[in-house]
Amino acid sequence: MIKKTILTILDKKQVGEKITMLTCYDYVIARLISSQDIDILLVGDSLGNVKLGYENTLPVTIDDMVYHTKAVKRGNNGALLVTDMPFMSYEITVEDAVRNAARIVKEGGAEAVKIEGGTEVIKSVKAIVDAKIPVVGHLGLTPQSINKFGGFKVQGKTAKARSKIISDAEALEKAGVFLIVLEAVPEQVAKEITQRLKIPTIGIGAGIYCDGQVLVIDDMLGLFTDFTPKFVKKYANVGEIIKTAVNSYINEVKSGQFPKEENTYL
Ligand code: KIV
After folding, report:
1. Could you tell me the mean pLDDT of each successive run of 10 residues in the chain, 266 residues long?
2. Are residues 116 and 245 in the same domain?
3. Is 107 labeled as catalytic in the residue annotation?
């Protein structure tokens, strides 16, 4: 697969080609997804929910992100590899932010990091970009702000909230991010941001006008079913396939149908 870089992603907006992005947390899935010419693999801190079973993303650590990034890196064939900076890894001091971003790149092998928030995180964004690490912004329903928002709610619905998201997007672009994820915002807000910015936008629950789309792989494969937001489309029901296969295995072991001669060293 031809290696995708941040330039490939920026070019896609120029030529009007949609950008494809999926989350990924391990080697096997990285192999499978990247064999299909996906543009970006995101080691999202959603791994807190879908891989570690936490209620939200807040407990996820830099060590968790580095560990999963290393596994994805080993399976990736050509996609741009982006990793989330987890809650409180970039908010306390700018030095902390740069040090943690550097760990994700040096130890994990990511090619860019993603940070949630707008003007309030601009100093960290600039410092990380100045440290030669590409940054992806993330606005709208930023899951690390769950306690501040009081739940998973669509953002940017009032005129004030709408203009805050738009000005945050412009501030992030000015600070040097090369891509912005817009999560759970009204379609018209995402459209306006996408038209105003030179850098691409990636939507998740942000409608059709974004320059690309991202989904959590466990949601779109039907593996994670604890809760399913409206914006998820299930492209497969792998959870049911797993249950059926495990059930057949249990029955065959119990009945003596497995293993057969072809599964046995004679
Ligand atoms: O953590 C994550 O999976 C994300 C995507 C939902 C964009 O940030």
Report:
1. 96 98 98 97 98 98 98 98 98 98 98 98 98 98 95 91 97 98 97 98 98 98 93 97 98 98 97
2. no
3. no
Q: What is the best residue among 25, 41, 42 to mutate for testing ligand 1's pocket, by most ligand atoms within 8 Å of CB? A: 42
Q: Which residues pair with 112 in a beta bridge?
A: 82
For 32-61, b where at least 16 C-beta lie within 10 A, e where not — what string?
ebbeeebbbbbbbbbbbbbbeeeebbbebe
User: What is the domain extent for residue 18?
Assistant: 6-235
245 and 135 inside one domain: no
**From ligand 1's centre to the CA of 3, what distance in Å?**
22
Neighbours of 116 (CB within 10 A): 25
Asked whether 23 lines ligand 1 (CB < 6 A), one says yes
pLDDT tens digits for range 65-78: 999 999 999 999 99
Residue 219 Cβ inside 6 Å of ligand 1? The answer reads no
Distance 2 CA to ligand 1 centre (A): 25
Whole-angstrom CA distances from 71 to 48, 67, 87, 137 are: 16, 7, 21, 23
Do 245 and 223 reside in the same domain of the chain? Answer: no
- Does residue 1 lie in a domain region? no
Q: Rounded to the nearest whole angstrom, what is the distance from the C-alpha of residue 46 to the centroid of ligand 1?
A: 6
pTM over 0.85: yes
